[in-house]
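Lecture 7, part 2: worked example. A protein chain together with protoporphyrin IX containing FE.
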Amino acid sequence: MNDVILARALHVLFVVIWIGGVAMATTVVLPAVRRGDLGADRLKAFQAIEHRFVWQARVAVLIVGLSGLYMTARLDLWQRFTSPGFWWMHAMVGVWSLFAFVLFVAEPFILHERFHRWATRRPHLAFAWLHRAHWLLLTLALLTVLGAVAGSQGWSFF
Ligand code: HEM
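Predicted complex, written out as structure tokens:
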């Protein structure tokens, strides 16, 4: 079972890197950008940070997804997806799918161009919206971490 231990260790390590980065962006970077503390050009300040973090997040999402699927297959945990008590398994897959869509589809093909235009015309509104979206994703991710750690020890809250 050393392979499952390794998969779990990688899974949690990259969850920490990914969700920790989202927490930093939401609670530190975006408030500073919105207030203009990193310069009057909010878009430039945001992109300088975002274009570096987005690659860390993409790699982390891939490793978390692969290690999660590996554990599910290796331990044959598929039947958990039929039971509401394992809501946190659904939450993990749901949060993963949401971020994977944002990072691999929406950001490069839709948001990058549109957000650039919006933030140039109406920076206050665009960054307020972006900040709210980050809060929503962060909240869902943190609830999932809480549920997964408690749930994998047999505590499902329901
Ligand atoms: C395709 C997506 C994912 C799959 C298939 C998956 C699958 C798994 C599996 C099978 C486990 C072990 C459960 C057990 O030992 O009973 C696990 C643990 C865990 N997962 Fe995921 N996961 C995924 C995504 C995520 C995401 C997005 C997060 C965080 C937001 C996350 C956070 C965790 C945590 C914190 C643990 C608990 C580790 C521990 O306490 O031992 N997972 N995951």
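The two ends are 30 Å apart (CA to CA). The chain has a mean pLDDT of 96. Keep this in mind for problem set question 3.
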